[in-house]
Structure formats: structure tokens, C-alpha cells
Amino acid sequence: MRRTVDRTAGKVMSMREAVAAFVHDGDTVSLEGFTHLIPTAAGHEIIRQGRRDLTVVRMTADIVVDQMLAAGCVTRLVSSFVGNSSAGSLGELRRRIEHADPEPLAFEEYSHYGMICRYLAGSQRLPFYPLRSYAGSDLPSVSPGIRKVASPYPAADGSTEQIYVVPPVNPDVTIIHAQRADRRGNTQIWGLTGVQAEAVYAAEKAVVVVEELVADEVVRADPNRTLIPAHAVDAVVLCPRGAHPSFAQGYYDRDNAFYRSWSAISKDPVRLREWLAKWVYGTADHAEYVARLGEEFWAGLAVGEALSEPVNYGRRL
């Protein structure tokens, strides 16, 4: 039976507790974050807990998906991009799709905008979402979820238009990484905001992983930065540096050296599993992963200040 969380009380949990409570074998799990704020630490904890038969929904399926595949967690992937973020390839994913090695991977492919529309449909509880951008594309021929319907409104010339639609996606749980939240789950993100809010609203449950917990007053002082309100969040996990090797705008930089190294690591199944044994199974949690890398390493990813101009929201006198 699924755990019910009081949506008005403090929702802070450890990563171990959150994954145990909200990620189950056979679930559809959305892991979103675009370029930065990728929920890597959450993916590692899913691996540690040995989840199986997951459908992973991630627009930009990258290194964390490759790792979860190698760990045997994923049987279906729904995505609009697969790759090592301009730095190479994903060895495990390629083996699964191209050679069914060590077993096949069910792969459902959409465009970036098609995935956004799926999240929009899911978050609004719509039966489908229309879009024009598949005209001339061969994606409809390989993705049976992309279909055509007759528009109920006449075109300019009076004809009946056939328009592409995509189905909603409603994950069992969405996990995102963010810069900060309060203990109730009011979550603030800046920089690239991606599709995190839509993915949260589309899901049955939502776990937000953050770089820092802040007081209510911090959130109230800058309300427009709150992309995800508390009522949509079931658990808040404090996990500094939990997006590595991606970055968290304002907290640490992207680990480009790791991205460049991943192609060689993942190309060799033995080397990939040795990496998992050392860095995921061989660490009790993300804090140990961070400590093992060492402070000198983290100093190399430090970022300087680029402060945003304060604004005056004004208040009644």
C-alpha cells in the first residue's frame, strides 16, 4: 500500500526514505531536469535499492539513464533525446537498443516538443495534446503513440484538418532536482527551468531533491521563483551536489571531464559495472559519494557570484 503524506506538514525525508516510499517495482518514473539540475543522486539511490521493471520517462535520456539500465532497473524508456550531452555516446543504451544485449529495451520516442505536450496533457488530465510539428517527420512511423485526429473546427478554406496528437503521460512518481525549497515543498528554480513543473503536476506523487532547505521567509521574499508549490509535492530531500555530473546554477559547475570520460566507461560493460560497484553500490548514500570525490575536486567546480537584481514587490502601508 502506498504511503500517504500530509501535504500541509513538513515533508523532509532522506533520499533512502523517499525512494523506499515512492518508487516501486514496475512503476513509471519521471526524472526531469534539463542540462542542469539532473536528479543523478536519486537515480543512484534507485539503483542501490534494486528497483526493477521501471518505465523511465526523461526527455533527455543521458548518463543517469545509462547507469540505471546497466543496473537492471529499466525495461522501458520514454524519451525525446538519448546521448551523452554532446560529449559522446551511451554504451549501455546502445547495446540494449542496437543488439538487445544483455536484453532488449522497449523504447518509445517523441520529439522534445512532443514530450512537453505529453507532460502538458498529463498535468491537465487531458486525453491528448495537439501539435503541428510532426508534419514531414518520420517519427509517427516509429512511435504508435503519435496519431492523427480530425479537428472539430474547419480550416480557413473550410476543409477538415487532420492534426497530430500525443497521449498524456502520468508517472507514478516524478523526481526532480532543484536549487532550494522550504520544508513544506515550495520549490524554487532559476536558470534553465525545463519541464519540471509540468512533470510534477502530471504525476501521482512528486519528490523534490534540493541543494538547500530554506526558511519560509526566503521563499516568500521571492515568490516568482517558486515554480512548484507545496501542494504538488509529497517529499523534500536535502541532497547537496546531488545533480553531479550536471550542474546546479549558482551552486557548482558542470563536470565536463566526467562527461567526456563516460563514453569510454560505458563502452566496456565490465568497466561500467566496476564503476557502479565503486561509486553507487560502494557508497552508502550520496554524501559518501561526494566525500569520496574530495574537497579539492569540488573546489574545481566552484562558481563565482552572479547576483540577480533585487526587486521591490511593494506592500500595503
The quaternary structure here is single chain
Segments where pLDDT lies below 50 for 5+ residues?
Answer: 1-8
Q: What fraction, in percent, of the residue positions are helical?
A: 25-40%
Number of strands: 15
Question: Mean of the pLDDT scores?
Answer: 95
Sheet with most strands: 10 strands, mixed
Order of helices and strands: EHEHEEHEEHEHEHEEEEHEHEEHHHH
Characterize the overall form. Answer: globular
By secondary-structure content and strand pairing, the structural class works out as: alpha/beta
Number of helices: 12
Q: How many angstroms separate the termini?
A: 51 Å
What Rg is obtained from the alpha carbons, in whole angstroms?
Answer: 20 Å
The percentage of residues in β strands lies in 15-25%
Key features?
12 helices, 3-stranded antiparallel β-sheet, alpha/beta, 317 residues, 10-stranded mixed β-sheet
What does the model show?
This protein is an alpha/beta fold and 317 residues long. The protein is 31% helix and 22% strand. It contains 12 helices and 15 strands. Strands 1, 2, 3, 5, 7, 11, 12, 13, 14 and 15 form a 10-stranded mixed β-sheet that branches. A hairpin with a 5-residue loop joins β9 (147-154) and β10 (160-166). Mean pLDDT is 95; it is low at 1-8.
